[in-house]
């Protein structure tokens, strides 16, 4: 029986992996201790018998210090017999979680225990079948999980939470020091802001522990610290630390005891060389110079200790020390987990050489977009192969990330390397770290490793796997009760325990379909995986047309189509699944179509119960205006902003058209297309207030002159009103008022006149509820003057839910991100959704009949639009249905952005319309079917 497996785990059984190491360590430590003691007593007696050798007064301390230099970090010997956690908060009641499906993290992540968990003293005390009568005299909190999944708390190996603050304010930006390329003496702890908005949000995603790293502006940015994310009674940064290294808090430690693990940030490649206007060569030299300094100091210490331990005290002097270099010396002594931000083969190669030259190991290569292409190189790192800590699908944002692949987690695992998914918070909102694991699983990483990649593996890589990352008796009581299997899209915690403390007093839970309690099945990507390797990360992505041929889809489960107002489900198969025939890009038969199965002239595709649904639209990223957002020479570039400086007279009075700057065939556009995002609306890249005229185009087109490449040359007029601008909000609103009242020149005057007349929508990027309120007032003012209805769309709109009713009444449309984040003060008041709030912003707006679209800010995430739409439905507790979810990213966007020339693409997915694999894309307008 499976639930018996969880019974009676003894700590030493529970940590099979470190065991041989631990034994070896204990033997070594004991041996060196005995040796040292022998030597010590030898010298002691000899110093008394020989004149000429003077034993220093602190000889005993020196001998202890010298002996301690060779101790490898780890928990104290008696750690696993602890009855209470050092982080236990007195007064915390014991908790019994009943009837859970417990993913323990044991057996390489394959063990599931169906049973109970008992939390007491800040520890997991029992896993399996718990006899509650034993605790009759205790005041137990009992939580009936009703079969729900329980996992260990999520562990983030790479976060800047608390140092790169949310909301971003000048007074709380402590990620990067610019005082030099090599700063191993800095400590992220010194910048850890205790008031960051992201702590609670991140915990609401099930994340319980984070490794807070300094940034990547420096080659050696400083020391990182592992913290637990719950609030503490002390309200101090130090109280958040998990097993801080000795010396940090001034405690004088027993030199016979192992030290605690330390963590340090290294970075190579673009970031340090860019910040210091240097090159990769300069960065690498900075590393070598630093390590050479540390090596010289270490050798002095070792020589000193050799003499001290041999009793040669004469003229020995003081132990060689240097406060600035001690941490790097500790790296050379194997006592620091080095976290190395490093992307490309050229940089791995440099680091691998460095580790072999100076003989130190690296805990993990982070970001590491090319690691999957050079696994054998990674394995040449001194000591042991580093883990590889990566994003799932975030890539191509700069040159060194260009060859990043969604299949990297799977390929790395196939090569026997440890895979960790990380947030780099706030680069990715760490609240959704488990989403990274979900995507890694979707793209081929086995479920056991996907869950391990955010729990047990990062815990081991940071040297904390004796207490976190798995559900084992004696481990810290950090557990998450989920509303669905955590590898399912949209999975949210029903409750999160840290150190046995429930983090939410009254958590909101959205009802999920029963099917989401199962481990999701991932599509088959074997061909794509092989191609990623074959083409060194740049497999050809151009769509292949099958013009002229009919396509017969079998086992079609459902069909969704656009109508005049939205998306409707027009067909749901009964048991067996329907047939759909597509000729010249158009559906010519759907339902039973018995003759179709016999057609020899057609291409036959089995959708395995999947769907045919409208192609989606994307808005919000520069997709269509750039290939690599971090490389200006691959982009259309920003427009002049009249509120931010002079506009050259030659274009004064002109509204810039995005259509003039379109770039086609970017990898993100093609990946979007292949994921069923068949069209995009993009506005000129703005530096501030004025953007220009957006255009709607097809993401799969080869260039602008191809038939159907441009859906609509001009879609809407775009401006932005922001509190982060260099001019005041009131100035920006005044400028907009002037333009709408006819104050502009030439084309500017014409287009804003059309806005005032309701002929073309005005899209305003705005986050703050106060700015949005001013825009609603302005809309009314203009309408009173013109007598026409102004079509206003607010995009961004992080705080819009505060005005849902007023927005609904004013007939204003809204485009929001599906997952809000308080990145700036003006976006602080988000509606985060379950478990923090019952409702999400999207659900709230839908209740007031507001037309809502979803936007994607980063173009590499355009491909995940289907996931965003599905997620919006999943967290809405039924307010947003499946067809509505598709409308959020298709018809609603077209309406809100003024796209009358609708995208007519249809997308066939093997598996669900949201999480299946796109296999064909059809367009009646271009009479084509593209097979993916
Ligand atoms: C556990 O929960 C499941 C799902 O709600 C239920 O079917 C089962 O009967 C429960 N078992 C116990 C022992 O309560
Ligand atoms: C300092 O840290 C060590 C190691 O975690 C701990 O044993 C000790 O109690 C701490 N001392 C103080 C004063 O907090
Ligand atoms: C939304 O629209 C529906 C249908 O037209 C209507 O019954 C309902 O009252 C509207 N709700 C609000 C809040 O305006």
What features would you describe in this structure?
The chain is an alpha/beta fold. It has 4 domains: 77-153 and 469-509, Urease, subunit C, domain 1 (Roll); 154-468 and 510-517, Metal-dependent hydrolases (TIM Barrel, Alpha-Beta Barrel), CATH 3.20.20; 545-614 and 907-932, Urease, subunit C, domain 1 (Roll), CATH 2.30.40; 616-904, Alpha-Beta Barrel (TIM Barrel). 26% of the residues lie in helices and 21% in strands. The protein is built from 24 helices and 35 strands. Strands 17, 18, 19, 20, 21, 22, 33, 34 and 35 form a 9-stranded mixed sheet that branches. A hairpin with a 4-residue loop joins β34 and β35 (928-931). The longest helix is centred in the N-terminal third of the chain and has 31 residues, at 19-49. The chain is globular and about 100 Å long. The two termini are 44 Å apart. Mean pLDDT is 93; it is low at 1-51.
What is the rounded distance between the termini?
44 Å
* CATH hierarchy: architecture of the largest domain: Alpha-Beta Barrel
The CATH class of the largest domain, by name, is Alpha Beta
Pick out the low-confidence regions.
1-51
Shape: globular
GO biological process, one term: purine nucleobase catabolic process
Domain Amidohydrolase-related: 150-500
GO molecular function: allantoinase activity
Transmembrane segments: 21-44
């Amino acid at each position: 029986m499976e639930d018996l497996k969880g019974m009676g785990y003894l700590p030493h059984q529970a940590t099979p992996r470190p065991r041989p190491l631990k034994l070896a360590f204990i033997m070594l430590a004991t041996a060196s201790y005995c040796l040292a003691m022998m030597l010590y007593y030898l010298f002691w007696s000899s110093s008394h018998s020989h004149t000429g050798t003077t034993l220093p007064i602190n000889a005993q301390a020196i001998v202890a210090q010298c002996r301690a230099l060779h101790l490898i970090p780890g928990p104290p010997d008696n750690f696993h017999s602890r009855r209470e956690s050092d982080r236990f908060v007195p007064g915390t009641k014991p908790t019994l979680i009943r009837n859970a499906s417990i993913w323990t993290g044991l057996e390489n992540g394959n063990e599931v225990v169906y049973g109970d968990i008992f939390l007491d003293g800040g520890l997991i005390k029992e896993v399996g079948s718990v006899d509650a009568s034993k605790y009759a005299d205790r005041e137990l909190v009992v939580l009936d999980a009703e079969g729900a999944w329980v996992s260990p708390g999520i562990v983030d190996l790479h976060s800047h939470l608390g140092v790169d603050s949310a909301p971003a304010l000048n007074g709380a930006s402590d990620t990067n020091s610019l005082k030099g390329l090599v700063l191993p003496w800095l400590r992220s702890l010194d910048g850890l802001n205790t008031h960051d908005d992201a702590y609670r949000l991140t915990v609401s995603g099930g994340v319980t522990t984070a490794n807070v790293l300094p940034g990547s502006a420096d080659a050696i940015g400083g020391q990182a610290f592992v913290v637990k994310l719950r609030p503490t009674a002390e309200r101090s940064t130090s109280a958040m630390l998990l097993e801080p290294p000795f010396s940090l808090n001034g405690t004088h430690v027993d030199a016979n005891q192992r030290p605690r693990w330390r963590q340090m940030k290294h970075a190579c490649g673009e970031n340090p060389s860019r910040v210091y206007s240097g090159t990769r060569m300069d960065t690498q030299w900075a590393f070598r110079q630093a390590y050479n300094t540390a090596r010289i100091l270490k050798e002095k210490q070792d020589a000193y200790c050799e003499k001290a331990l041999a009793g040669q005290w004469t003229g020995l002097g003081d132990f060689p020390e240097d406060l600035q270099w001690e941490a790097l010396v500790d790296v050379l002594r194997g006592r620091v987990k080095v976290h190395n931000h490093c992307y490309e083969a050229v940089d791995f190669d440099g680091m691998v050489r460095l580790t072999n030259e100076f003989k130190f190991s690296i805990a993990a290569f982070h970001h590491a977009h090319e690691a999957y292409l050079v696994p054998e190189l990674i394995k040449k790192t001194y000591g042991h192969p580093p883990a590889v800590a990566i994003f799932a699908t975030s890539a191509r944002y700069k040159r060194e990330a260009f060859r990043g692949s969604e299949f990297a987690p799977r390929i790395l695992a196939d090569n026997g390397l440890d895979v960790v998914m990380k947030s780099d918070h706030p680069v990715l909102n760490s609240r959704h770290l488990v989403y990274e694991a979900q995507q890694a699983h979707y793209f081929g990483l086995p479920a056991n490793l996907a869950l391990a990649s955010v729990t047990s593996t990062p815990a081991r890589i940071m040297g904390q796997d004796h207490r976190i990352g798995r559900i084992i008796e004696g481990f810290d009581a950090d557990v998450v009760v989920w509303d669905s299997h955590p590898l399912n899209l949209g999975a949210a915690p029903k409750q999160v325990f840290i150190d046995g403390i429930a983090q939410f007093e009254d958590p909101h839970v959205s009802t999920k379909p029963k099917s989401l309690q199962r481990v999701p099945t991932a599509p088959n990507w074997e061909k794509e995986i092989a191609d990623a390797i074959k083409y060194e990360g740049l497999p050809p992505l151009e769509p292949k047309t099958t013009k002229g041929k009919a396509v017969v889809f079998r086992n079609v489960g459902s069909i969704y189509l656009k109508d005049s107002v939205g998306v409707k489900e027009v067909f749901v198969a009964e048991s067996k699944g329907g047939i759909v025939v597509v000729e010249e890009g158009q559906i010519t038969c759907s339902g039973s179509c018995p003759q179709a199965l016999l057609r020899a002239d057609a291409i036959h595709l089995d959708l395995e119960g999947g769907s045919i649904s409208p192609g989606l639209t994307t808005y919000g990223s520069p997709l269509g205006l750039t290939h690599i957002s971090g490389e200006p020479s691959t982009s259309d570039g920003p427009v002049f902003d009249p509120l931010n400086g002079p506009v050259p007279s030659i274009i004064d009075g002109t509204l810039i058209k995005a259509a003039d700057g379109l770039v086609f065939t970017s990898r993100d556009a093609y990946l979007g297309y292949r994921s069923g995002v068949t069209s995009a609306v993009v506005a000129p890249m703005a530096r501030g207030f004025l953007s220009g005229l957006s255009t709607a185009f097809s993401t799969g087109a080869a260039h602008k002159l191809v038939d159907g490449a441009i859906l609509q040359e001009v879609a809407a007029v775009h401006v932005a009103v922001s509190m982060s601008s260099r001019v005041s909000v009131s100035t920006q609103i005044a400028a907009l008022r002037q333009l709408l009242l006819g104050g502009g020149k030439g084309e500017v005057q014409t287009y804003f006149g059309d806005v005032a007349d309701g002929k073309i929508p005005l899209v305003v990027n705005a986050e703050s509820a106060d700015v949005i309120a001013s825009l609603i007032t302005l809309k009314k003012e203009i309408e009173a003057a013109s007598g026409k209805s102004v079509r206003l769309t607010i995009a961004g709109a992080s705080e819009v839910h505060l005005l849902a009713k007023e927005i609904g009444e004013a007939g204003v449309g809204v485009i929001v991100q599906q997952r809000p984040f308080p990145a700036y003060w003006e976006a602080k008041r988000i509606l985060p959704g379950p478990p923090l709030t019952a409702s999400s912003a999207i659900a709230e707006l839908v209740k007031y009949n507001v037309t809502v679209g979803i936007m994607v800010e980063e173009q590499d995430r355009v491909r995940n639009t289907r996931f965003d739409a599905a997620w919006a439905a999943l967290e809405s507790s039924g307010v947003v249905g499946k067809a509505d979810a598709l409308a959020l990213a298709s018809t609603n966007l077209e309406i809100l952005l003024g796209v009358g020339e609708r995208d007519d693409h249809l997308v066939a997915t093997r598996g669900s319309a949201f999480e299946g694999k796109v296999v064909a894309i059809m367009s009646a307008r271009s009479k084509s079917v593209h097979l993916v």
